[in-house]
Amino acid sequence: MKNKILVAPSLLAADPLHFGRDLKEAEELGVDWHHFDVMDGHFVPNLTYGIPLVKALKEKSTIPLDVHIMVSNPDQVALDYVAAGANYLVFPIESVVHSHRLIHAIQEKGAKAGVAINPGTPLHAIEALLPYLDLVNIMSVNPGFGGQKFIPEALNRIRTLKSQLTNLGRAKKCLIEVDGGVNAETAALIIEAGADVLVAGTFFYGNKDKRGALNTLRGI
Ligand code: DX5
Ligand code: ZN
Questions:
Q1: pTM reported for the whole predicted model
Q2: Domains of the chain by range and CATH?
C-alpha cells in the first residue's frame, strides 16, 4: 500500500505580520506539518527567523513542527530549536561538522533528525547516515528564497535515495521530503518518484484557494 503523502506548508510564504493567524488557518484546512525555514544570512544570503518565533508558534500549534535550519553552525544551534519545540530538526549536510553525533543528539532529545542536501551536493555525501536518519530533505532549489523554479534533476535523486533506503529496509522509517518549487505541475512527478513529504511555500500560502492547493498537492 502506498503511504499517504504529507504536506508541510512553509511559513516563509505566509504573511509575516500574521504568522499565528496563517498557521492556524493552515491547520484548520488539514495540513500535516508546519515547515519553518530558518535562514541565518550566512549559510544562505537571506535572513528569516529564529528560536523565539519557533517557540511562540509552537504554543499555538497542534501539529508537528518541521524546522529546517539553513545555518552555518548547525552543530551549535540545532538542539536549541529542539528545545523550542521542533518535532523534526533538519540541518544542512554542507555546513554540519559532526553529522553522526548531531543526529543522535537530536534523537536523544526526543525529536526526529533530518538532513537537507543541496542540488549541487552528490547524494553519496549522506550515504553513511542513511541507517540513522528519520528524514532526508532533497532540496529542489538552491536554498535561500521561496518562489524559485523546481530543478528537475531532483527527481532522479529522489528515485536513487528511495532505492538506497529500500535496500537498507528503511524506506518506511526514513521519510523523503522535497523542498522548493513544489506546485501543481511538479507535485505529481515528485510523488511518483517516491517522496513522502511535500514542502510548499508559494503554492500554498500564496494561493487564494488554499483548500484547493492542498487537494492538488495530495492529488485529490
Ligand atoms: C528554500 C526553502 C523552501 C522554500 C520553499 O530555501 O527551504 O522551504 O520556502 O518555497 P517555495 O515553495 O516557494 O519554492
Ligand atoms: Zn525548507
A1: 0.98
A2: 6-218 (3.20.20.70)
